[in-house]
Fold this protein.
Amino acid sequence: MQFSFTSEQEELRSVLRRYFEDTSPTSTVRRLMETERGWDAADWRGLHDQIGLGGVHVPEAYGGLGLGFVELGIVVEEMGRALVCSPFFASSVLATTAILNAADETQKAEFLPKLASGETVATLAFAEPNGRWDVEGVGMTARPGGGRYRLDGVKSFVLDGASADLFIVLARAPGSQGSQGLSLFTVRRDAPGLTVQPLAALDPTRKLARLAFEGVEADLLGEPEGAAAPFARTLAQACAMLASEMVGGAERLRESALEYASLRMQFGRLISSFQSMKHKQADMLLEVELAKSAAYYAAAAADDDAADFPAVAHLAKAMASDTYLQTAIHTIQIHGGIGFTWDNDTHLWFKRAKSSEVFLGDAAWHRERMIQTWAA
Amino acid sequence: MQFSFTSEQEELRSVLRRYFEDTSPTSTVRRLMETERGWDAADWRGLHDQIGLGGVHVPEAYGGLGLGFVELGIVVEEMGRALVCSPFFASSVLATTAILNAADETQKAEFLPKLASGETVATLAFAEPNGRWDVEGVGMTARPGGGRYRLDGVKSFVLDGASADLFIVLARAPGSQGSQGLSLFTVRRDAPGLTVQPLAALDPTRKLARLAFEGVEADLLGEPEGAAAPFARTLAQACAMLASEMVGGAERLRESALEYASLRMQFGRLISSFQSMKHKQADMLLEVELAKSAAYYAAAAADDDAADFPAVAHLAKAMASDTYLQTAIHTIQIHGGIGFTWDNDTHLWFKRAKSSEVFLGDAAWHRERMIQTWAA
Amino acid sequence: MSTTSEEALRAEVRSWLEANWDPERELVAWRNLLIDAGWGAPTWPNRWYGRDLSPELAQVVDQEIRRVGAVGVARAGPRSLAQAVLLAHGSDGQKEQFLRRSLTGEDTWCQLFSEPGSGSDPAGATTRADFRDGRWVVSGQKLWTTSAHHADWGLLLARTDWDKLKHQGLSYFLIDMRQPGVEVQPLRQMNGHASFNQVFFTDAEVAADHLVGERGGGWAVATTTLMHERRGFDSFGAGAGPTDVRPGRTHAQASAEAATALEPYVWYPQRTGRVDLVLEGARASGKLDDPVVRQEIAKLLSLAKSVEWTARRARAAQAAGRPPGPEGSLGKLAASLIARAAARVHTQIAGADAMLTGADGPLEGLIAEILVSTPAISIAGGTDEIQRNIIAERVLRMPKEPSPDLDRPFRDVPRSVAT
Amino acid sequence: MSTTSEEALRAEVRSWLEANWDPERELVAWRNLLIDAGWGAPTWPNRWYGRDLSPELAQVVDQEIRRVGAVGVARAGPRSLAQAVLLAHGSDGQKEQFLRRSLTGEDTWCQLFSEPGSGSDPAGATTRADFRDGRWVVSGQKLWTTSAHHADWGLLLARTDWDKLKHQGLSYFLIDMRQPGVEVQPLRQMNGHASFNQVFFTDAEVAADHLVGERGGGWAVATTTLMHERRGFDSFGAGAGPTDVRPGRTHAQASAEAATALEPYVWYPQRTGRVDLVLEGARASGKLDDPVVRQEIAKLLSLAKSVEWTARRARAAQAAGRPPGPEGSLGKLAASLIARAAARVHTQIAGADAMLTGADGPLEGLIAEILVSTPAISIAGGTDEIQRNIIAERVLRMPKEPSPDLDRPFRDVPRSVAT
């Protein structure tokens, strides 16, 4: 198990940090979050063309960098830190990982190069309006016919669903239940019978959509009715990556709170000299460092395909949920009234913390999943 | 609903406070807690003869004071504050309340005057080695025969069980389940077939015992198989009273922590001038005041027989469980290393907080019971 | 007059209202009638529109006005602070100029105390007022100013002497908000509402006779304002919207006035966490069957109930004439705990839906508004940290922190660089 | 000597051990042999019983000693602090007198720093040492002194000059614990164990040549001691009991020595909260099926795992030669969080049984010992509050608190009244 980043990984991190400091200042975030799609096509091409982020964990044979989840974790951690407005998590993490886990060789060769190059923006549509993140909650049906399938039902909370070209969709054989009968499908944005409705998101930097399927033609991805295992794996890996993204944001908040406290005076003293402020900052540091350790461990465990991997992914996501939100609340509090204003940047991260808290499942849900493994 | 104590009640409190300051200094507590029975017969008589505490909530017709749970709550709050070593909670709260709720007139006339005078020391034996505080956990059987009953089974966590003269015992008809078939019985200490085994208690100021019954002859108290309702009422009232006892201890701890911080210097400053200390004391005050409000409300609701009474009794006990222990932990911490020593008195209350935390059910259990009512 | 019996008073008010109340009057004209009769502010001195009545007897007047459904004078919001300050510290000329127009609602007021960098410490004000050519010239920046965008006059705390100690170099002014050199910018909050403004002064002017109290005596006057504000805090935030509109021109004008005044506060109920919505929400989402969520709900309800009972305990003790116990000082801090716990529980109940807002969100966006509004409660009106300091120092009598701002001329007190 | 190759060294030690190790020797005689050969403390200087070996090569010596199952010299506990201080600051005469006897175990040591009222602040010591008639005369009280009841000598920090600043008036002494004027009282803890003592000095004497370093230079010497103590903290507490007893007189004597030294620490594992017992305990009691308890267990395990991974992250970064990140400073504070959470979870699991101790209690009283021992972890070795100060000041570079004890003669520093 890797507990320390290599020099190459540290170099990747510092390149990314500089790049996102340049390309994703909060003025850019604020501009993009007011747009409907929420991201900029030129920025998206820049990610691929200028810093070669195409397909971090996609094998080189499919046009990727052939790296692993530790590197992908670094990328999303830095994106979370800079609150980069991009379909990266939807396309390069969720959809790409689903294809890597589920698709056959032909399908990989068909989809991955275009995903790695950024030509196709894809996303994963699996949760439904019931808001469940487990496969038991999937109600969408897939009826086979003529070598293809027809999908009926509604997907919700689809990340960048209103701007993606391609959907990876989880559906089940009519009459099946639980983890039985599940298959993954690909559906093009322009498929007849598909209605895409943007949702008003509390976090304007992360766009969500609802997708209504009425007899939409879809192509099978991977094995028929064999999606349970690859999907579970995809979800666990995505949770590990989301945890990384979240600790990136939490660390940035923590640093901004410290910076603010070190500049402002009240009652003739730097507010950073008040003991309650010092203790709160110490607690924040502890919490963020612990959540980082969990996220890093989960990423390394994903690469090692460690036996405890799904459990530690749940652990990392639960820790990140609690820590990111708590750090955001503390950061607002440390800023005082200023921290509650629109012009102060803290609320941008607060809202990301809030949406990330429940995206892919809240802390209690992940803890329950985790304990099912540890206690087994 | 009564939200303010009357002048008479305030006077009762101040009389008791002075009395217990005189008669129950920690030197006395430390002496008595090392004894096997844990209390002193002369002190017990003093409670009745000197300050007339006999039967606070027993009607005057049975030799009591004819007061209510608000007054009884004041008594146990002051006892909890001074950590009075006495069978008062076992005899005057648990057993007396059970008789008041369950017994018929004849039985009341038989038992209550002796309980009110202190001549008889009784206790309530209802939990069993499974540690459950609900009647579903009762396994002890009562077989009728010849106008009396024979009890078989084991009771545990019996307060002052090793020093009581009389036991009020909850048992069930053979084959019955849940809240069906439950009856209360009286059993004398010297009943053949009864084995009393003192238990080693974490809190040496509160003695516990295990009682093994092998065909012990017992007398029915109240209605045959009609104990479910009066017992539930007894337990709720006892929880309200235990909450009062606990907030008395918590308040004393809080005050001692404040006093210590106001006397000790470190780094050339009174430790009470450190902001972290001030904030901790403010939080402790808030927590203790909230728990006091809940306990007082529960006592008043018991007197009013308010519709929400059982729920608020659960609420008060849960708040008291969390608050008393948290206050004890803070108080040790504020004392530093001294607070962890045997010679410092804090641990006496810490251990009472610890045992009270689970006695009559822990906070989670009470919260679940509470929500069953609120959410109904 | 103060010996008037209750019945006699009630009869007098009743007959006066019968003779005068007409819901079709112009609002200002009606209020002037009330003021002239002494029924607008009956506790005020005879000389200033009042009748020197005790608060108890004044309630009789209010009851009668409410009974016939008449409109009262304007006495809410920052204008009530102006009234209190003018009564206590104003010169006769100031009272003459401002009191009546404040009661009729012709003038609206705002309070200009807080600044960037001294939100918790109004005595640290660095907005300056310099006396030049017979008038005061004001420059600086104020923050957290409710209603400044429609206020006619402001209650201004400004520094007039930089060589004195912090609290001794402040003066208190009445400043015309409708003049060049006063720029009001709305301050949008993270929940999208704009309840406050920032106000920039650039050589704005104050007439010499609009200084309240003595030069350098501003802190004492400000203390009156702050005490009055603290007392009014609860009722202020609680009024969540305009009251029912009754027929008649007077009511219509009063409602419009109230709607303007209350607009900044429409989201205030949400910052409390809305515990009232929890049980029903959990039942609707099915989460009420989840034992883990049940525990969290139970903790929240226990906390909220205990806080409520604590407040009632404080009021009952006060009513019984007992000295105030510690329980009265804890409400503000407790409200923060409740709001945070409630936001957590709402999130658990909403699950994935907690990501949605507006019409897509739970309860038509109300839950989302709660989630982005609760952070305000632990800040506004004194942060939790300040509340803990206050509890420790005033209730528990613990020592104050060392204060490097109190023992030297304000000029030498370390301050934040303006940003 | 320091250029010895590893193989040559290993061969030399091996053949020496073959020739000399005999498990039936008297312990002290055997250790003297080891010391004379330079194998007892091989990193020490040649002149003082060592061979100037690097720590890496010294491990070879230890490996060989362990391989044949031989007993080593005495280098644990407070005696190791004495050795470090003597090597760094001792005079030749002090080294001569004490080093060998400390290695043989003939002398045992204790550390006399903390006092009532300065548990977190050893530089605030008020035990006084006055130079009279050619010797130092010591009066005062020390606290938290492990092993004082069987120590021959003590490492004493005492104040020799009251007119200097706090850190400049201290001197460091070696004091004979077996003399009149030294009274050792065991200090019982709330968990029933007595790991510490308090030591009262009443005109106890210290020879002039038992001053370590300069008069007034005691704080520098104490710093060596404290650094060494901090480094050894983990390994110290971890050794929970004497090792396996092997046959032979040497082993028997060494085991008896270890048992005495470790006796104060037998409960130390319990103060960590014993997370290792949680899952099995919950399974045994059936509480593992309770969703509410499952959440608490999951939180505890998440915390414990994250802390473990953070420690490994710090070690890996150190091994990779990176500058130490913040993660290394957090372990002590994290341990407190774990212990408190674990105590809560153990209580939930035990339910009513949490009221019982000894043979009646869960796990034969082990759970009860956990419950009454965990409060120690947030205090011993620096309270949580001190840890947070350290993290804020040293890691986050936040400003120190105003310190009224640093800017004036110690005589004028406000101090607690002795109680």
Summary: The CA atoms of residues 21 and 370 of chain A lie 36 Å apart. Strands of chain A lie at 122-125, 141-145, 148-159, 166-172, 182-188, 194-199, 208-221, 265-266, 269-270. The radius of gyration of chain A is 21 Å. The longest helix of chain A spans residues 228-263.
